[in-house]
């Protein structure tokens, strides 16, 4: 564990160090280039705001009204027949939609069932092995002004579903004994 | 499609609230989440400015090109539409690398930059083939070390907080491979349709 922690604390400073050393060695005006590139970031954050706000508010309405819980209760038995444990169903539905909600649920599951239980391990694996599809698509397409998203969302959600199944199978096999 | 999903979520929520007496919760969610979205976007400024600034320095120092050369054989196969020496490749790779190391904060600015370069290449407001491939790989998460999850597990006294690293990597591999395959299948379907 200590190695993992050390790597993750050292990596960012080391990347910065490497970039600056090489750029200085090549006699580039580092500070001026940095500021020039950074300016773009300000613009980007503001152009992202409406995209994020719209999506987050819509998700909040769905969750706040209780409709999302109702939908999850509705499909739980269906997914349970596929072998997906009922406790994990809400997390697998939320994971592609809202990153913060999913993290909250994972924490809750680990707390309730214990980190070393089957559900705890499964929730941990699922949380780590897929990302918030809807957020990524909103941010990336929003930032550069893509209107027609093609198959991106469909493919992303299919991959998420495969990821959930894979997590269950893998956790079951690896921690079988 | 995103239009239907976006409007659909709000419509379903409000109609559901009408029949279940949770309208006050809807109002609450409305304003709280709008606030949260603004905080999130403003919070992104710090990360975006820093990493886009540093990436510009890395680009001018020729580091992005080096990274691209290193992984060229693999990435050219994933993104056949992007010219081999295009800056888009450099940004795509730095996004993947940042994701692999769990640097989500650094990955987003580089990913946006990659999207910009791909938009320059396609020159339209329609998602190009490369963009879809890029996003799908991103949504399947490339994390090698899930630091947040490990931290949570430690907090709840796990005997082996890192024991899920292996299963996470395996699951990630399966998901990413599946994502790439599904993406290819959809692409082939699109090609067939236009013929």
UniProtKB/TrEMBL annotation, chain A:
PANTHER family: INNER MEMBRANE PROTEIN YJIG
Species whose genome carries this gene: Aquibacillus rhizosphaerae
A Pfam family matched in the record: Gate
Protein name per UniProt: Spore maturation protein
Bilayer-spanning residue ranges: 7-25, 45-62, 157-176
Family matches, as InterPro entries: Gate_dom, SpmB
Recorded superkingdom: Bacteria
Keywords: Membrane, Transmembrane, Transmembrane helix
The UniProt record lists the keyword Signal: no
Domain Nucleoside transporter/FeoB GTPase Gate: 46-146
TrEMBL record, chain B:
Species per Swiss-Prot/TrEMBL record: Aquibacillus rhizosphaerae
Transmembrane segments: 6-23, 35-54, 132-152, 164-187
Name assigned to this protein: Nucleoside recognition domain-containing protein
Lyase keyword on record: no
Sorted UniProt keywords: Membrane, Transmembrane, Transmembrane helix
InterPro entries per record: Gate_dom
Domain Nucleoside transporter/FeoB GTPase Gate: start-end pairs: 43-151
